[in-house]
Recover the amino acids of this structure.
């Protein structure tokens, strides 16, 4: 294995639940559903704006626009590195692996995440809002492999959504299902596999 590809949300970045209001947890409960809602998928694809997503959240929750705008902004601002994964990324970099990002992420969220020092450790990235395609569509994986000349047989993809892992494996990439509920255990398993 030479190339390690990380999903971002739920794997390398998340909101610390202890810092989140019950309002944020309630608003964004849909993000943990097995199937991502279409409106959020289109936001990640770059096909809809933050204003359009805010409109949809107003309709879904029945809350005033100002409340939805505030909660969405807080959801972005509360993103932080998942400590065990952040440590693992540093260890893998020092061990000589090539590291990549493959993530479904909207413009506002990715702009926030790119400011964290851990992001600078990656050798390349493919982010859905910049490509017009989302996981688990095969095209986004093909972009990653083609852009960086990655051999699927030498590439490990880490994601917390089984459908995304399965799509990578269908293209010959080795997959690892990351348990976002226990990132320390998931990182320990990866460490045993790779280091």
């Amino acid at each position: 294995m030479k190339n390690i590809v990380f999903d971002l949300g739920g794997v390398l970045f998340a909101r610390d639940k202890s810092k989140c209001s019950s309002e944020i947890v309630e608003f964004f409960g849909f993000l943990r559903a097995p199937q991502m809602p279409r409106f959020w998928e289109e936001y990640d694809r770059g096909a809809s704006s933050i204003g359009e997503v805010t409109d949809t959240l107003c309709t879904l929750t029945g809350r005033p626009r100002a409340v939805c705008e505030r909660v969405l902004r807080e959801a972005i601002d509360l993103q932080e590195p998942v400590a065990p994964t952040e440590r693992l990324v540093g260890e893998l970099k020092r061990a000589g692996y090539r590291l990549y990002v493959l993530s479904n992420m909207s413009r506002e969220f990715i702009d926030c995440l790119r400011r964290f020092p851990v992001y600078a450790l990656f050798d390349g990235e493919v982010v859905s809002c910049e490509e017009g395609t989302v996981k688990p569509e095969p095209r986004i994986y093909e972009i990653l492999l083609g852009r960086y000349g990655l051999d699927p047989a030498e590439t490990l993809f880490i994601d917390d959504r089984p459908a995304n892992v399965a799509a990578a494996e269908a293209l010959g990439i080795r997959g690892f299902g990351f348990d976002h509920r226990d990132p320390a255990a998931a990182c320990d398993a990866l460490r045993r596999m790779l280091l």
